[in-house]
Write a structure and sequence with these properties.
Elements: E1 45-46, E2 68-69, E3 74-75, H1 81-89, H2 93-100, H3 106-114, E4 122-127, E5 133-142, E6 153-160, H4 169-183, E7 188-194, H5 198-206, E8 210-214, E9 217-223, H6 229-273
Helix pairs in contact: 1-3, 4-6
Length: about 280
Protein backbone atom coordinates (compact mmCIF):
# COMPACT_ATOMS: atom_id res chain seq x y z
CA UNK A 1 0.00 0.00 0.00
CA UNK A 2 1.44 3.30 -0.96
CA UNK A 3 1.15 6.40 1.08
CA UNK A 4 1.35 10.19 1.20
CA UNK A 5 1.62 11.18 4.30
CA UNK A 6 -0.95 6.42 17.39
CA UNK A 7 -0.25 6.00 26.09
CA UNK A 8 1.79 7.38 28.39
CA UNK A 9 4.29 8.91 29.16
CA UNK A 10 2.97 12.01 27.43
CA UNK A 11 5.35 13.57 24.98
CA UNK A 12 5.74 17.28 25.52
CA UNK A 13 6.92 19.64 22.84
CA UNK A 14 7.80 23.31 22.82
CA UNK A 15 4.83 25.63 23.06
CA UNK A 16 3.59 27.00 19.76
CA UNK A 17 1.66 30.06 18.79
CA UNK A 18 -1.68 29.08 17.28
CA UNK A 19 -2.72 31.37 14.41
CA UNK A 20 -6.36 32.40 13.99
CA UNK A 21 -8.60 29.95 12.14
CA UNK A 22 -8.92 30.34 8.40
CA UNK A 23 -12.22 31.03 6.72
CA UNK A 24 -12.42 27.51 5.27
CA UNK A 25 -12.81 25.99 8.73
CA UNK A 26 -9.21 24.90 9.05
CA UNK A 27 -6.22 26.32 10.90
CA UNK A 28 -3.75 28.03 8.55
CA UNK A 29 -0.17 26.73 8.31
CA UNK A 30 2.51 28.14 10.55
CA UNK A 31 4.48 31.16 9.47
CA UNK A 32 7.87 29.73 10.36
CA UNK A 33 7.87 27.26 7.48
CA UNK A 34 7.22 24.17 9.61
CA UNK A 35 4.09 22.06 9.75
CA UNK A 36 1.84 23.17 12.58
CA UNK A 37 0.51 20.69 15.12
CA UNK A 38 -2.72 22.56 15.73
CA UNK A 39 -6.18 21.26 14.98
CA UNK A 40 -7.93 22.17 11.77
CA UNK A 41 -11.26 21.56 13.36
CA UNK A 42 -11.12 22.81 16.92
CA UNK A 43 -9.16 25.33 18.94
CA UNK A 44 -9.57 23.28 22.15
CA UNK A 45 -6.20 22.43 23.64
CA UNK A 46 -5.57 19.11 25.40
CA UNK A 47 -2.61 16.88 26.29
CA UNK A 48 -0.93 15.12 23.40
CA UNK A 49 -1.98 11.47 22.95
CA UNK A 50 0.72 9.09 24.08
CA UNK A 51 2.79 7.57 21.33
CA UNK A 52 5.23 5.38 23.20
CA UNK A 53 8.21 7.55 22.35
CA UNK A 54 10.79 8.85 24.75
CA UNK A 55 9.43 11.72 26.86
CA UNK A 56 10.91 15.16 26.77
CA UNK A 57 11.95 16.77 30.05
CA UNK A 58 9.03 17.73 32.27
CA UNK A 59 8.71 21.41 33.04
CA UNK A 60 9.91 22.39 36.48
CA UNK A 61 8.04 24.61 38.93
CA UNK A 62 7.43 28.06 37.50
CA UNK A 63 7.87 26.92 33.89
CA UNK A 64 5.04 26.74 31.38
CA UNK A 65 3.90 23.27 30.40
CA UNK A 66 3.93 23.08 26.58
CA UNK A 67 0.92 21.46 24.91
CA UNK A 68 -0.37 20.73 21.43
CA UNK A 69 -3.89 21.55 20.41
CA UNK A 70 -6.22 18.57 20.20
CA UNK A 71 -7.19 17.14 16.81
CA UNK A 72 -10.44 15.12 16.80
CA UNK A 73 -9.84 11.84 14.95
CA UNK A 74 -12.99 9.82 14.36
CA UNK A 75 -13.28 6.11 13.62
CA UNK A 76 -15.18 5.47 10.39
CA UNK A 77 -17.50 2.63 9.41
CA UNK A 78 -19.42 1.24 6.43
CA UNK A 79 -21.85 4.17 6.44
CA UNK A 80 -18.94 6.48 5.63
CA UNK A 81 -18.03 4.79 2.33
CA UNK A 82 -19.40 7.65 0.24
CA UNK A 83 -17.41 10.22 2.22
CA UNK A 84 -14.26 8.11 1.86
CA UNK A 85 -14.74 7.86 -1.89
CA UNK A 86 -15.32 11.62 -2.13
CA UNK A 87 -12.10 12.26 -0.19
CA UNK A 88 -9.95 9.97 -2.33
CA UNK A 89 -11.45 11.15 -5.61
CA UNK A 90 -10.61 14.73 -4.60
CA UNK A 91 -6.88 13.87 -4.57
CA UNK A 92 -4.89 15.17 -7.51
CA UNK A 93 -3.00 12.86 -9.89
CA UNK A 94 0.31 13.11 -8.03
CA UNK A 95 -1.36 12.36 -4.69
CA UNK A 96 -3.20 9.38 -6.12
CA UNK A 97 0.06 8.06 -7.54
CA UNK A 98 1.81 8.30 -4.17
CA UNK A 99 -1.17 6.86 -2.28
CA UNK A 100 -1.84 3.85 -4.52
CA UNK A 101 1.42 3.44 -6.46
CA UNK A 102 -0.29 4.15 -9.77
CA UNK A 103 -2.62 6.68 -11.35
CA UNK A 104 -5.78 5.25 -9.80
CA UNK A 105 -8.97 6.14 -11.66
CA UNK A 106 -12.22 7.09 -9.96
CA UNK A 107 -13.59 3.61 -10.69
CA UNK A 108 -10.52 1.94 -9.17
CA UNK A 109 -10.84 4.10 -6.07
CA UNK A 110 -14.51 3.16 -5.71
CA UNK A 111 -13.61 -0.53 -5.95
CA UNK A 112 -10.89 -0.08 -3.31
CA UNK A 113 -13.36 1.53 -0.90
CA UNK A 114 -15.86 -1.28 -1.54
CA UNK A 115 -13.24 -3.79 -0.35
CA UNK A 116 -12.53 -2.03 2.96
CA UNK A 117 -13.13 -4.48 5.82
CA UNK A 118 -14.29 -2.33 8.73
CA UNK A 119 -14.65 -5.39 10.98
CA UNK A 120 -11.03 -6.47 10.65
CA UNK A 121 -9.25 -3.22 9.82
CA UNK A 122 -9.61 0.31 11.14
CA UNK A 123 -10.26 3.52 9.23
CA UNK A 124 -9.84 6.97 10.80
CA UNK A 125 -10.73 10.44 9.58
CA UNK A 126 -10.32 14.11 10.41
CA UNK A 127 -13.27 16.37 9.54
CA UNK A 128 -13.22 20.14 9.31
CA UNK A 129 -16.04 22.37 10.58
CA UNK A 130 -17.99 21.83 7.37
CA UNK A 131 -17.77 18.05 7.89
CA UNK A 132 -15.45 17.61 4.95
CA UNK A 133 -13.22 14.57 5.34
CA UNK A 134 -9.85 16.27 4.85
CA UNK A 135 -7.53 13.52 6.15
CA UNK A 136 -7.96 9.75 6.05
CA UNK A 137 -5.96 6.79 7.38
CA UNK A 138 -6.37 3.06 6.84
CA UNK A 139 -4.81 0.66 9.37
CA UNK A 140 -4.88 -2.83 7.88
CA UNK A 141 -4.25 -5.56 10.46
CA UNK A 142 -2.35 -8.66 9.37
CA UNK A 143 -2.92 -11.63 11.68
CA UNK A 144 0.04 -13.57 12.97
CA UNK A 145 0.85 -17.06 11.66
CA UNK A 146 2.89 -19.16 14.08
CA UNK A 147 3.36 -21.97 11.53
CA UNK A 148 5.11 -19.53 9.22
CA UNK A 149 6.88 -17.68 12.00
CA UNK A 150 5.03 -14.48 11.11
CA UNK A 151 4.02 -12.11 13.88
CA UNK A 152 0.93 -9.91 13.74
CA UNK A 153 1.55 -6.54 12.11
CA UNK A 154 -0.47 -3.54 10.94
CA UNK A 155 0.01 -1.62 7.70
CA UNK A 156 -0.61 2.12 7.71
CA UNK A 157 -1.81 4.22 4.78
CA UNK A 158 -2.80 7.89 4.79
CA UNK A 159 -3.98 10.69 2.51
CA UNK A 160 -4.55 14.39 3.17
CA UNK A 161 -6.35 16.86 0.91
CA UNK A 162 -4.35 19.92 -0.19
CA UNK A 163 -6.39 22.21 2.09
CA UNK A 164 -5.33 20.13 5.11
CA UNK A 165 -1.62 19.76 4.41
CA UNK A 166 1.27 21.23 6.37
CA UNK A 167 -0.81 21.09 9.55
CA UNK A 168 0.58 17.87 11.00
CA UNK A 169 -2.48 15.73 10.22
CA UNK A 170 -0.43 12.89 8.72
CA UNK A 171 1.65 12.70 11.90
CA UNK A 172 -1.44 12.86 14.13
CA UNK A 173 -3.07 10.00 12.22
CA UNK A 174 0.17 8.01 12.40
CA UNK A 175 0.32 8.46 16.19
CA UNK A 176 -3.37 7.55 16.45
CA UNK A 177 -2.79 4.38 14.43
CA UNK A 178 0.18 3.46 16.66
CA UNK A 179 -2.05 3.69 19.72
CA UNK A 180 -4.79 1.53 18.21
CA UNK A 181 -2.31 -1.07 16.95
CA UNK A 182 -0.72 -1.29 20.43
CA UNK A 183 -4.11 -1.81 22.02
CA UNK A 184 -4.78 -4.72 19.65
CA UNK A 185 -1.55 -6.33 20.91
CA UNK A 186 0.22 -5.69 17.62
CA UNK A 187 3.99 -5.43 18.05
CA UNK A 188 4.92 -4.00 14.66
CA UNK A 189 3.48 -1.37 12.36
CA UNK A 190 4.75 -0.90 8.83
CA UNK A 191 4.21 1.24 5.79
CA UNK A 192 4.86 0.44 2.14
CA UNK A 193 5.65 3.47 0.03
CA UNK A 194 7.33 4.55 -3.15
CA UNK A 195 10.94 5.49 -2.47
CA UNK A 196 10.19 8.92 -3.92
CA UNK A 197 7.56 9.50 -1.23
CA UNK A 198 10.10 11.21 0.98
CA UNK A 199 7.49 12.92 3.16
CA UNK A 200 6.00 9.60 4.27
CA UNK A 201 9.36 7.96 4.82
CA UNK A 202 10.58 10.96 6.79
CA UNK A 203 7.48 10.73 9.01
CA UNK A 204 8.12 7.04 9.68
CA UNK A 205 11.81 7.60 10.36
CA UNK A 206 11.06 10.39 12.82
CA UNK A 207 8.91 7.91 14.81
CA UNK A 208 11.84 5.51 15.01
CA UNK A 209 11.03 3.22 12.08
CA UNK A 210 13.70 1.31 10.17
CA UNK A 211 13.60 2.02 6.43
CA UNK A 212 14.29 -0.77 3.94
CA UNK A 213 14.70 0.35 0.31
CA UNK A 214 14.26 -1.91 -2.68
CA UNK A 215 14.65 0.15 -5.80
CA UNK A 216 11.56 2.23 -6.48
CA UNK A 217 9.76 0.95 -3.38
CA UNK A 218 10.49 1.13 0.33
CA UNK A 219 9.13 -0.29 3.56
CA UNK A 220 9.30 1.25 7.02
CA UNK A 221 9.07 -1.04 10.07
CA UNK A 222 8.30 0.32 13.53
CA UNK A 223 8.39 -1.69 16.75
CA UNK A 224 5.57 -0.74 19.12
CA UNK A 225 5.61 -0.78 22.92
CA UNK A 226 3.09 -3.07 24.64
CA UNK A 227 -0.36 -1.81 25.52
CA UNK A 228 -1.16 -0.58 29.01
CA UNK A 229 -4.12 0.58 31.09
CA UNK A 230 -3.10 4.11 30.19
CA UNK A 231 -3.06 3.42 26.45
CA UNK A 232 -6.55 1.89 26.54
CA UNK A 233 -7.84 4.83 28.58
CA UNK A 234 -6.24 7.23 26.12
CA UNK A 235 -7.99 5.52 23.21
CA UNK A 236 -11.38 5.42 24.93
CA UNK A 237 -11.32 9.09 25.90
CA UNK A 238 -10.10 10.12 22.46
CA UNK A 239 -12.88 8.23 20.70
CA UNK A 240 -15.59 9.69 22.94
CA UNK A 241 -14.29 13.23 22.54
CA UNK A 242 -14.04 12.88 18.75
CA UNK A 243 -17.60 11.54 18.56
CA UNK A 244 -18.86 14.45 20.66
CA UNK A 245 -16.98 16.90 18.42
CA UNK A 246 -18.56 15.34 15.32
CA UNK A 247 -22.07 15.59 16.77
CA UNK A 248 -21.52 19.26 17.57
CA UNK A 249 -20.50 19.92 13.98
CA UNK A 250 -23.55 18.05 12.70
CA UNK A 251 -25.80 20.11 14.98
CA UNK A 252 -24.25 23.39 13.81
CA UNK A 253 -25.16 22.51 10.23
CA UNK A 254 -28.79 21.63 10.84
CA UNK A 255 -30.13 25.20 11.16
CA UNK A 256 -28.51 26.13 7.87
CA UNK A 257 -29.95 23.06 6.18
CA UNK A 258 -33.37 23.81 7.64
CA UNK A 259 -33.23 27.41 6.44
CA UNK A 260 -32.34 26.23 2.95
CA UNK A 261 -35.34 23.91 2.93
CA UNK A 262 -37.64 26.71 4.14
CA UNK A 263 -36.33 29.07 1.47
CA UNK A 264 -36.94 26.43 -1.18
CA UNK A 265 -40.49 25.80 0.02
CA UNK A 266 -41.22 29.54 0.04
CA UNK A 267 -39.92 29.90 -3.50
CA UNK A 268 -42.12 27.02 -4.68
CA UNK A 269 -45.19 28.54 -3.02
CA UNK A 270 -44.45 31.89 -4.63
CA UNK A 271 -44.11 30.29 -8.04
CA UNK A 272 -47.45 28.50 -7.68
CA UNK A 273 -49.15 31.75 -6.68
CA UNK A 274 -48.09 33.51 -9.85
CA UNK A 275 -50.75 33.61 -12.59
Amino acid sequence: MNLIEGGFPVERRPAETIPPPATDGTTPPSTDGTATLSSSTDETRAPTPATGGAPTPIATAGEARPTRSWVPIRSLGPRHRERIVAHLVALDERSRYLRFGHQASDAQIARYVDTLDFEHDEVFGIFNRRLELIALAHLAHRDGDASRGRAAASEFGVSVLPKGRRRGFGRRLFEHAMLHARNRHVGTMFIHALSENTAMLRLARSAGATIERDGSESEAWLKLPPDSIASHLDQMLGERAAEFDYRLKEHSHRPALGQTAEDGAAADASARAEP
